[in-house]
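BUG: 3D viewer hangs when loading the predicted structure for this chain

Environment: internal workstation, default settings.
Expected: structure renders.
Actual: progress bar stalls at 90%.

Input used:
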Amino acid sequence: MNIQDLEIPHPHERDWRYRVFEILPAVLTWLVLALPLLLGLFSPDIAAVFVIAYMLLWFFRAIGLNMRSLQGNRMMNQHKKLRWDQLNNDLENLKVTMSHSPKWHGENIARVARDQAQRKRVKPSEVIQAVVIAMYKETRDTLEPTMEAVLASEYNPKQVVIVIAYEERGGEDAEKLANWLVKTYQNKFMHIMAVKHPKDTPGEVVGKGGNITYAARRLQKYLESQMIEPRRVLVTTLDADNRPDKKYFGALAYTFCSTDDPKHVSYQPIAMYLNNIWDAPAPMRVIATGNSFWMVIQTLRQHTLRNFSAHAQPMEALIDTGFWSVRTIVEDGHQFWRTYFRYDGKHEVFPIFVPVYQDAVLSDGYVRTLRAQFVQLRRWAWGASDIAYVVKMGYQTKNKLPRVDLLFKTLRLIEGHLSWATAPLIITFAGYLALLFNPESYISNQIPIIASQVMTIALGGILITLFLSLRSLPPKPLRYRRHRTLWMVLQWVYLPVTTIAYSSFAALYSQTRLAFGKYLDKFDFTEKAVKK
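Structure tokens produced before the viewer hung:
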């Protein structure tokens, strides 16, 4: 499929078929939410059966998620302890020399050794890691720790190219900061440059996609001037507050060089919202911690794994796809579909079991922080707009996609956004509706029992997340006293409120707005203040 065919159509170019599938998520969501009420009016017993079936589904799903949370956390801790420099050295020479190395390391060495005669392998020493850091109005207090985190990596900085992608609309302060970063770090990496994205570029929404695409095109010119092959270059995109774990670049290089077909793979680290977790208000801490461990769980569900926030992709593939979309505010997740269609379904996302640490939402003032959190989540939920795009590209456009794979991916995409909006509301409130319509029904009276069992499993999940979150907390700042740790435990009473008021309502808002054609054509900058 050609690059020109990959872009999302402009609003005025979307025909009735495209609009049908933009409306579909909201229709399904509101239908599922109304179903207990509608069934209750005509057949209370059927309504009760529906609610029970839904709760049982989530009962077993909750068990699986809890197990994956523990498994994923263990995997992450193991990978954070590995000597990736030694593993990469073994991969370079195709010989296991590292004592007590993981079993999969020897298997990778043997597989790559078998395959090297059939393909031109990129060795770890040949890899160039480009890091595109997107900034808007962030301050030095946010950007400098990010630069220091990249520099402190257990990876040769002379194999790293830094691209500071800043917005013209960020004003004079943003330009001064970008140039200061270049001057400060110019001799510490292979190369560093600042690229200013012009404001009001025709055909673009106001968003991150246009910024990093513009910067990546400048990166492409630099690589051409240095005669560096794109197939050797891995591009990681970071927001201004994203701080890679010191093991990240080593783990990424190893995974890239040991992948059978690296061109057709994206690489997804674990987003952990812990940078400022001690400073954020309690509701934001609950949301940030929950999101962090959801990302941990996702790394073990590769069939559903998609690009999110910080992610990496070979420069060769980015060139083939025309980089990221400039017409959506969710360019990260959308990039999976863009690449999937470009290569006729030959594309996967591989997990990197190493974190990239990010900020929890924190603005100036409690009320502004609460609002900023909702704005962030509604932007994430705007990923429902990909459903219409997937249908258009996959089913209404001539292609060579594997039909069964496309079908399952489409259904998972729809189900994910449907559950996001409906699950907390149905589990919390639907049982009361069934009892209201038929209080003497045996089936209706079983709902509270099943609901209590679901809540018990959910409580187990909360306790697991609480335990893991306390272990993963960064050191407590000296400005806080010991009782601050107690609030880290008590904050979980907010979970029912944050799940409904933020997660469900943000998804409902985005899906309903999409259905009415009220497009989010501007990336809402999430304020992340820094406390000193």
